[in-house]
Amino acid sequence: MVKGLEALKELPCETLDKHRLPLWVNTGLMTDVVRSLERGAEGVGLYRTEVPFLLRDRFPSEEEQRIIYREQLEAFAPHTVTMRTLDIGGDKALPYFPITEDNPFLGWRGIRVTLDHPEIFLAQIRAMMKASSGLDNLRILLPMISGVQELEEAKTLIYRAYHELLEENHDVKLPPIGVMIEVPAAVYQARELAARVDFLSVGSNDLTQYLLAVDRNNARVADLYQAFHPAVLRALLQVVQDGHSQGVSVGICGELAGDPGAAILLMAMGYDVLSMNATNLPKVKSVIRAINLEQAESLLADVMLLAAPADVRERIEATLRDAG
Ligand code: PEP
Ligand code: MG
Protein backbone atom coordinates (compact mmCIF):
# COMPACT_ATOMS: atom_id res chain seq x y z
CA MET A 1 0.00 0.00 0.00
CA VAL A 2 1.24 3.55 -0.73
CA LYS A 3 2.86 5.14 2.36
CA GLY A 4 0.50 7.44 4.27
CA LEU A 5 -2.62 5.86 2.83
CA GLU A 6 -3.21 3.81 5.95
CA ALA A 7 -3.35 6.92 8.18
CA LEU A 8 -5.50 8.90 5.73
CA LYS A 9 -7.88 5.97 5.29
CA GLU A 10 -8.98 6.21 8.92
CA LEU A 11 -9.64 9.96 8.82
CA PRO A 12 -13.09 11.26 7.86
CA CYS A 13 -13.51 13.20 4.64
CA GLU A 14 -14.54 16.55 6.09
CA THR A 15 -13.52 20.17 5.77
CA LEU A 16 -11.74 22.11 8.52
CA ASP A 17 -15.17 23.36 9.64
CA LYS A 18 -16.52 19.76 9.76
CA HIS A 19 -18.61 19.64 6.60
CA ARG A 20 -18.78 15.92 5.67
CA LEU A 21 -18.45 14.82 2.08
CA PRO A 22 -18.58 11.07 1.49
CA LEU A 23 -16.07 9.83 -1.11
CA TRP A 24 -17.19 6.79 -3.07
CA VAL A 25 -15.52 4.87 -5.86
CA ASN A 26 -16.17 3.71 -9.39
CA THR A 27 -15.57 -0.01 -9.93
CA GLY A 28 -15.79 -2.63 -12.65
CA LEU A 29 -13.39 -5.40 -11.73
CA MET A 30 -12.72 -7.17 -8.44
CA THR A 31 -9.21 -5.63 -8.46
CA ASP A 32 -10.84 -2.18 -8.11
CA VAL A 33 -12.47 -3.40 -4.92
CA VAL A 34 -9.18 -4.09 -3.12
CA ARG A 35 -7.72 -0.70 -4.10
CA SER A 36 -10.94 1.02 -3.02
CA LEU A 37 -11.09 -0.61 0.39
CA GLU A 38 -7.40 0.15 1.01
CA ARG A 39 -8.18 3.81 0.42
CA GLY A 40 -11.19 3.91 2.73
CA ALA A 41 -13.98 4.24 0.16
CA GLU A 42 -17.33 4.74 1.87
CA GLY A 43 -19.38 3.18 -0.92
CA VAL A 44 -19.56 2.55 -4.65
CA GLY A 45 -21.14 5.34 -6.70
CA LEU A 46 -20.78 3.52 -9.99
CA TYR A 47 -20.25 -0.16 -10.66
CA ARG A 48 -19.97 -0.44 -14.45
CA THR A 49 -21.71 -3.76 -15.15
CA GLU A 50 -20.57 -3.68 -18.77
CA VAL A 51 -17.01 -4.49 -17.61
CA PRO A 52 -17.69 -8.16 -16.77
CA PHE A 53 -19.79 -8.41 -19.96
CA LEU A 54 -16.82 -7.10 -21.99
CA LEU A 55 -14.55 -9.83 -20.62
CA ARG A 56 -16.69 -12.68 -22.00
CA ASP A 57 -17.51 -14.16 -25.37
CA ARG A 58 -21.28 -14.33 -24.72
CA PHE A 59 -23.88 -12.73 -22.45
CA PRO A 60 -23.42 -14.01 -18.87
CA SER A 61 -26.47 -15.92 -17.62
CA GLU A 62 -28.64 -14.52 -14.81
CA GLU A 63 -26.94 -16.90 -12.34
CA GLU A 64 -23.43 -15.95 -13.56
CA GLN A 65 -24.34 -12.31 -13.11
CA ARG A 66 -25.75 -12.95 -9.64
CA ILE A 67 -22.42 -14.44 -8.53
CA ILE A 68 -20.40 -11.52 -9.94
CA TYR A 69 -22.70 -8.90 -8.39
CA ARG A 70 -22.78 -10.69 -5.04
CA GLU A 71 -18.97 -10.44 -4.81
CA GLN A 72 -19.14 -6.67 -5.25
CA LEU A 73 -22.02 -6.23 -2.81
CA GLU A 74 -20.41 -8.45 -0.18
CA ALA A 75 -17.02 -6.73 -0.46
CA PHE A 76 -18.51 -3.34 0.42
CA ALA A 77 -21.38 -4.33 2.75
CA PRO A 78 -22.83 -2.58 4.69
CA HIS A 79 -21.81 0.31 2.42
CA THR A 80 -23.91 1.12 -0.64
CA VAL A 81 -23.03 -0.31 -4.04
CA THR A 82 -24.61 1.53 -6.97
CA MET A 83 -24.95 -0.86 -9.91
CA ARG A 84 -25.51 0.70 -13.28
CA THR A 85 -27.46 -1.32 -15.82
CA LEU A 86 -25.63 -2.26 -19.00
CA ASP A 87 -24.18 0.79 -20.76
CA ILE A 88 -23.03 -0.60 -24.10
CA GLY A 89 -22.91 1.22 -27.43
CA GLY A 90 -20.96 4.45 -27.92
CA ASP A 91 -17.34 3.49 -27.32
CA LYS A 92 -18.19 0.23 -25.52
CA ALA A 93 -19.01 -2.61 -27.91
CA LEU A 94 -19.48 -6.23 -26.87
CA PRO A 95 -17.71 -8.51 -29.39
CA TYR A 96 -20.70 -10.87 -29.36
CA PHE A 97 -23.31 -8.09 -29.80
CA PRO A 98 -21.91 -5.84 -32.52
CA ILE A 99 -23.50 -2.43 -33.09
CA THR A 100 -22.37 -0.72 -36.29
CA GLU A 101 -23.38 2.91 -36.67
CA ASP A 102 -21.98 6.07 -38.27
CA ASN A 103 -22.44 8.06 -35.09
CA PRO A 104 -22.35 5.66 -32.15
CA PHE A 105 -22.30 8.28 -29.37
CA LEU A 106 -25.60 9.59 -30.73
CA GLY A 107 -26.93 6.17 -31.46
CA TRP A 108 -28.11 3.02 -29.81
CA ARG A 109 -26.44 3.09 -26.38
CA GLY A 110 -27.18 2.62 -22.68
CA ILE A 111 -30.84 2.42 -21.73
CA ARG A 112 -31.89 2.63 -25.40
CA VAL A 113 -30.41 -0.81 -26.04
CA THR A 114 -31.78 -2.46 -22.93
CA LEU A 115 -35.30 -1.04 -23.31
CA ASP A 116 -35.30 -2.54 -26.80
CA HIS A 117 -34.07 -5.81 -25.27
CA PRO A 118 -36.05 -6.18 -22.06
CA GLU A 119 -34.82 -9.77 -21.68
CA ILE A 120 -31.26 -8.44 -21.15
CA PHE A 121 -32.48 -5.75 -18.74
CA LEU A 122 -34.74 -8.08 -16.73
CA ALA A 123 -32.00 -10.71 -16.32
CA GLN A 124 -29.68 -8.02 -14.98
CA ILE A 125 -32.19 -6.56 -12.56
CA ARG A 126 -33.19 -10.01 -11.29
CA ALA A 127 -29.52 -10.95 -10.80
CA MET A 128 -28.83 -7.70 -8.92
CA MET A 129 -31.82 -8.05 -6.59
CA LYS A 130 -31.07 -11.70 -5.85
CA ALA A 131 -27.41 -10.84 -5.22
CA SER A 132 -28.40 -8.18 -2.70
CA SER A 133 -30.63 -10.54 -0.71
CA GLY A 134 -29.78 -10.29 3.01
CA LEU A 135 -27.28 -7.46 2.40
CA ASP A 136 -29.69 -4.87 1.01
CA ASN A 137 -26.91 -2.45 0.06
CA LEU A 138 -27.83 -2.24 -3.64
CA ARG A 139 -28.90 0.86 -5.59
CA ILE A 140 -29.79 0.64 -9.29
CA LEU A 141 -28.60 3.36 -11.68
CA LEU A 142 -29.93 3.88 -15.22
CA PRO A 143 -27.54 5.21 -17.91
CA MET A 144 -28.21 7.60 -20.81
CA ILE A 145 -31.70 8.60 -19.73
CA SER A 146 -32.90 11.50 -21.88
CA GLY A 147 -36.48 11.84 -20.69
CA VAL A 148 -39.19 10.81 -18.28
CA GLN A 149 -40.70 8.22 -20.60
CA GLU A 150 -37.54 6.13 -20.75
CA LEU A 151 -37.33 6.28 -16.99
CA GLU A 152 -40.94 5.17 -16.55
CA GLU A 153 -40.41 2.23 -18.92
CA ALA A 154 -37.29 1.16 -17.03
CA LYS A 155 -39.06 1.47 -13.68
CA THR A 156 -41.96 -0.67 -14.93
CA LEU A 157 -39.48 -3.41 -15.83
CA ILE A 158 -37.74 -3.09 -12.45
CA TYR A 159 -41.09 -3.45 -10.60
CA ARG A 160 -41.94 -6.42 -12.81
CA ALA A 161 -38.66 -8.17 -11.93
CA TYR A 162 -39.24 -7.43 -8.25
CA HIS A 163 -42.77 -8.86 -8.22
CA GLU A 164 -41.68 -11.94 -10.16
CA LEU A 165 -38.94 -12.60 -7.63
CA LEU A 166 -41.37 -12.22 -4.73
CA GLU A 167 -43.74 -14.69 -6.40
CA GLU A 168 -40.79 -17.09 -6.75
CA ASN A 169 -40.26 -16.72 -2.97
CA HIS A 170 -36.93 -14.88 -3.14
CA ASP A 171 -36.08 -12.70 -0.18
CA VAL A 172 -35.65 -9.45 -2.13
CA LYS A 173 -36.23 -5.75 -1.48
CA LEU A 174 -36.95 -3.01 -3.96
CA PRO A 175 -33.67 -1.03 -4.08
CA PRO A 176 -33.38 2.74 -4.48
CA ILE A 177 -33.47 3.68 -8.18
CA GLY A 178 -31.52 6.56 -9.73
CA VAL A 179 -30.71 8.06 -13.11
CA MET A 180 -27.48 9.26 -14.63
CA ILE A 181 -27.61 12.87 -15.70
CA GLU A 182 -25.30 12.74 -18.68
CA VAL A 183 -27.37 13.98 -21.62
CA PRO A 184 -28.16 17.71 -21.89
CA ALA A 185 -31.88 16.90 -22.15
CA ALA A 186 -31.67 15.32 -18.70
CA VAL A 187 -30.19 18.52 -17.24
CA TYR A 188 -33.29 20.41 -18.34
CA GLN A 189 -35.49 17.60 -16.99
CA ALA A 190 -33.59 17.11 -13.74
CA ARG A 191 -36.54 18.24 -11.62
CA GLU A 192 -39.02 15.94 -13.35
CA LEU A 193 -36.60 13.02 -13.25
CA ALA A 194 -35.72 13.64 -9.60
CA ALA A 195 -39.41 13.63 -8.68
CA ARG A 196 -39.59 10.03 -9.93
CA VAL A 197 -36.40 8.53 -8.44
CA ASP A 198 -34.44 8.19 -5.22
CA PHE A 199 -31.18 9.77 -6.40
CA LEU A 200 -29.41 11.46 -9.31
CA SER A 201 -25.84 10.85 -10.39
CA VAL A 202 -24.13 13.15 -12.86
CA GLY A 203 -22.01 11.46 -15.53
CA SER A 204 -19.74 14.39 -16.26
CA ASN A 205 -17.70 12.47 -18.87
CA ASP A 206 -20.62 12.18 -21.25
CA LEU A 207 -22.32 15.37 -20.11
CA THR A 208 -19.21 17.41 -21.03
CA GLN A 209 -18.94 15.67 -24.38
CA TYR A 210 -22.59 16.26 -25.25
CA LEU A 211 -22.80 19.83 -23.92
CA LEU A 212 -19.69 20.94 -25.80
CA ALA A 213 -20.20 18.68 -28.85
CA VAL A 214 -16.66 17.33 -28.34
CA ASP A 215 -15.96 13.60 -28.66
CA ARG A 216 -14.48 12.51 -25.32
CA ASN A 217 -12.03 10.15 -27.09
CA ASN A 218 -10.89 12.26 -30.06
CA ALA A 219 -7.34 13.55 -29.52
CA ARG A 220 -7.79 16.19 -32.24
CA VAL A 221 -10.40 18.04 -30.22
CA ALA A 222 -9.09 17.13 -26.76
CA ASP A 223 -8.26 20.80 -26.07
CA LEU A 224 -11.93 21.64 -26.48
CA TYR A 225 -13.03 19.07 -23.93
CA GLN A 226 -13.15 21.59 -21.08
CA ALA A 227 -14.60 20.43 -17.79
CA PHE A 228 -14.41 24.01 -16.47
CA HIS A 229 -16.29 25.49 -19.41
CA PRO A 230 -18.93 27.87 -17.97
CA ALA A 231 -21.70 25.87 -19.67
CA VAL A 232 -20.56 22.70 -17.89
CA LEU A 233 -20.27 24.45 -14.51
CA ARG A 234 -23.71 25.98 -14.90
CA ALA A 235 -25.24 22.61 -15.79
CA LEU A 236 -23.57 20.96 -12.79
CA LEU A 237 -24.96 23.61 -10.46
CA GLN A 238 -28.44 23.48 -11.94
CA VAL A 239 -28.67 19.70 -11.56
CA VAL A 240 -27.77 19.72 -7.89
CA GLN A 241 -30.21 22.54 -7.14
CA ASP A 242 -33.03 20.87 -9.09
CA GLY A 243 -32.35 17.50 -7.49
CA HIS A 244 -32.37 18.99 -4.01
CA SER A 245 -35.59 20.87 -4.75
CA GLN A 246 -37.21 17.41 -5.02
CA GLY A 247 -35.50 16.13 -1.87
CA VAL A 248 -33.23 13.57 -3.54
CA SER A 249 -29.54 12.98 -3.06
CA VAL A 250 -27.32 14.18 -5.93
CA GLY A 251 -23.90 12.72 -6.63
CA ILE A 252 -21.41 12.76 -9.44
CA CYS A 253 -19.50 9.79 -10.84
CA GLY A 254 -17.60 11.21 -13.83
CA GLU A 255 -13.82 11.68 -13.84
CA LEU A 256 -14.27 15.30 -12.76
CA ALA A 257 -15.10 14.16 -9.21
CA GLY A 258 -11.56 12.80 -8.89
CA ASP A 259 -9.90 16.12 -9.71
CA PRO A 260 -9.10 17.77 -6.34
CA GLY A 261 -9.82 21.31 -7.59
CA ALA A 262 -13.10 20.28 -9.17
CA ALA A 263 -14.02 18.34 -6.02
CA ILE A 264 -13.91 21.59 -4.04
CA LEU A 265 -16.26 23.28 -6.48
CA LEU A 266 -18.62 20.30 -6.48
CA MET A 267 -18.71 20.31 -2.69
CA ALA A 268 -19.51 24.03 -2.70
CA MET A 269 -22.29 23.43 -5.24
CA GLY A 270 -23.86 21.06 -2.72
CA TYR A 271 -23.09 17.63 -4.17
CA ASP A 272 -23.90 14.98 -1.55
CA VAL A 273 -21.33 12.44 -2.66
CA LEU A 274 -18.37 12.29 -5.06
CA SER A 275 -17.58 8.98 -6.74
CA MET A 276 -14.20 8.53 -8.38
CA ASN A 277 -11.45 6.20 -9.47
CA ALA A 278 -9.87 4.81 -6.27
CA THR A 279 -6.46 6.18 -7.31
CA ASN A 280 -7.69 9.76 -6.88
CA LEU A 281 -9.48 9.29 -3.57
CA PRO A 282 -6.57 10.10 -1.20
CA LYS A 283 -5.67 13.29 -3.13
CA VAL A 284 -9.26 14.51 -3.02
CA LYS A 285 -9.61 13.68 0.65
CA SER A 286 -6.42 15.57 1.54
CA VAL A 287 -7.60 18.70 -0.25
CA ILE A 288 -11.08 18.64 1.30
CA ARG A 289 -9.50 18.23 4.74
CA ALA A 290 -7.34 21.32 4.17
CA ILE A 291 -10.13 23.78 3.32
CA ASN A 292 -13.20 25.45 4.87
CA LEU A 293 -16.61 25.11 3.26
CA GLU A 294 -16.86 28.90 3.29
CA GLN A 295 -13.60 29.23 1.31
CA ALA A 296 -14.92 26.70 -1.21
CA GLU A 297 -18.21 28.60 -1.54
CA SER A 298 -16.45 31.88 -2.12
CA LEU A 299 -14.25 30.23 -4.78
CA LEU A 300 -17.39 28.87 -6.46
CA ALA A 301 -19.04 32.31 -6.45
CA ASP A 302 -15.91 33.74 -8.14
CA VAL A 303 -15.50 31.10 -10.82
CA MET A 304 -19.16 31.13 -11.82
CA LEU A 305 -18.48 34.65 -13.14
CA LEU A 306 -15.49 33.65 -15.28
CA ALA A 307 -15.73 33.01 -19.00
CA ALA A 308 -12.45 31.19 -19.68
CA PRO A 309 -11.87 27.63 -18.38
CA ALA A 310 -8.14 28.42 -17.96
CA ASP A 311 -9.02 31.29 -15.60
CA VAL A 312 -11.20 28.93 -13.57
CA ARG A 313 -8.30 26.50 -13.21
CA GLU A 314 -5.97 29.34 -12.19
CA ARG A 315 -8.39 30.63 -9.56
CA ILE A 316 -8.79 27.12 -8.12
CA GLU A 317 -5.00 26.64 -7.94
CA ALA A 318 -4.58 29.95 -6.15
CA THR A 319 -7.13 28.83 -3.53
CA LEU A 320 -5.38 25.47 -3.13
CA ARG A 321 -2.02 27.24 -2.68
CA ASP A 322 -3.54 29.53 -0.02
CA ALA A 323 -4.94 26.48 1.76
CA GLY A 324 -1.41 25.02 1.80
C1 PEP B 1 -19.90 9.46 -17.36
O1 PEP B 1 -20.35 9.54 -18.49
O2 PEP B 1 -19.46 10.43 -16.72
C2 PEP B 1 -19.85 8.16 -16.66
C3 PEP B 1 -19.50 8.08 -15.39
O3 PEP B 1 -20.12 7.05 -17.37
P1 PEP B 1 -19.11 6.38 -18.42
O4 PEP B 1 -17.78 7.04 -18.27
O5 PEP B 1 -19.10 4.93 -18.10
O6 PEP B 1 -19.76 6.68 -19.74
MG1 MG C 1 -21.50 7.93 -19.38
TrEMBL record:
GO terms for biological process: phosphoenolpyruvate-dependent sugar phosphotransferase system. Its main location: cytoplasm. GO terms for molecular function: kinase activity; metal ion binding; phosphoenolpyruvate-protein phosphotransferase activity. It is found in: Cytoplasm. GO terms for cellular component: cytoplasm. Keywords: Cytoplasm, Kinase, Magnesium, Metal-binding, Phosphotransferase system, Sugar transport, Transferase, Transport. Belongs to the PEP-utilizing enzyme family. This is phosphoenolpyruvate--protein phosphotransferase. It comes from Gilvimarinus xylanilyticus. The chain holds residues 419 to 742 of 754 of the full protein.
